[in-house]
Amino acid sequence: MNPKIDTKREAKRIIFGLIGAVIMAVNIKTFVRAGGLYPGGFNGVTLLFQTICDRFFDIAVPFSPISLALNAIPAIISFKAIGKKFTVITSLMIVATSVLTDMVPAIPITQDILLISVFGGLINGVAISIALIGGASTGGTDFIAIYFAEKKNKDVWNYILLANAVVLLVAGYLFGWDKALYSIIFQYASTQMIHLLYQTYKKVTLFVITDEPEAVYQAIYEVTNHSATEFTATGMYSNEKRKMIYSVVSTMEAKVLTQKVMEADPHAFVNVVKTDTLVGRFYQKETY
User: Fold this and answer.
1) Which of 1, 42, 216, 248 is 20 to 30 A from residue 110's alpha carbon, by CA?
2) From CA 236, how far away is CA 196, in angstroms rounded?
3) CA 81 to chain centre
4) How far apart are CA 152 and CA 145, in angstroms?
């Protein structure tokens, strides 16, 4: 890889990671703690542990050491399974989030628990998405989600949402079910925001009816580095022979590619179909 491109890539990771860390820390102090919520993941476990120590043992435990200890094992696994640079940048973000959470002053914006749950969840999803788009993550369960996305080509964010239910059950049993139920709203809003903003691993199938198959294929290859399959088709109404190009690309690539295809053949007919399952060889750009 070009050293300049590699430097820009790492700089992007650091910048996006730090932005995500700042947003995450401010959100924890502004919304999450104000509402007594448990955001799921290792942040939720950390907050739950802090609350248990405070309520039952009258011990004020800082956020940083618990969060760092919980993230240690997933970080080691990620270092070997996902990528060294990705893990290092993510680890820096974990440290930054932990330290900032202890440093940022608590400034509650509202006491309305429903508003806190919805907007806190949306902001949490934005923070995670910014980190992921930059090529880093917020650590913890993100390591798990990215491992399955990168290595198994599976979207497991909703499964992580279900796994977080364990934290909520414990929190609900110890501190009241109202906070646990509001935390579900928080986590759902966060998950949906991630699905909206981060679409790298979502796939779509592209069908293009065209008279310029070579130009369309070239556009697909240049944008995605994917190949395509050409079929000979016959228009039922006109009885004319045309070509159909078939390819599978990511959702984000499809948005750019559709425009490129229409530039290559203004008379092309493009159909983009959601792809839920994909088996076989599929080129995935190296992100981590």
Assistant:
1) 42
2) 38
3) 18
4) 10
Distances (CA, A) of 222 to 201, 207, 216, 230, 256: 19, 17, 10, 17, 11
Helix (H, G, I), strand (E, B) or coil at 267: coil
The strand order across the sheet containing 269-275 reads 229-234, 241-250, 203-210, 269-275
pLDDT digits (tens), the chain, 288 positions? 555 656 787 888 888 888 988 998 999 888 888 888 888 778 888 888 888 998 889 898 888 888 888 888 778 877 877 777 778 888 888 888 888 888 888 888 888 999 999 999 999 999 988 988 887 777 777 677 767 766 666 666 667 777 777 888 888 888 888 888 898 899 889 888 988 887 666 788 889 999 899 999 998 888 888 788 999 988 888 888 889 999 988 887 888 888 888 998 998 999 998 877 666 565 555 555
CA dihedral (34, 41, 131, 119) positive or negative? negative
Give the H or E element holding residue 223.
helix 213-224
Joined together, the tokens standing for residue 207 give: 């069908």
Determine the residue type at 184.
I
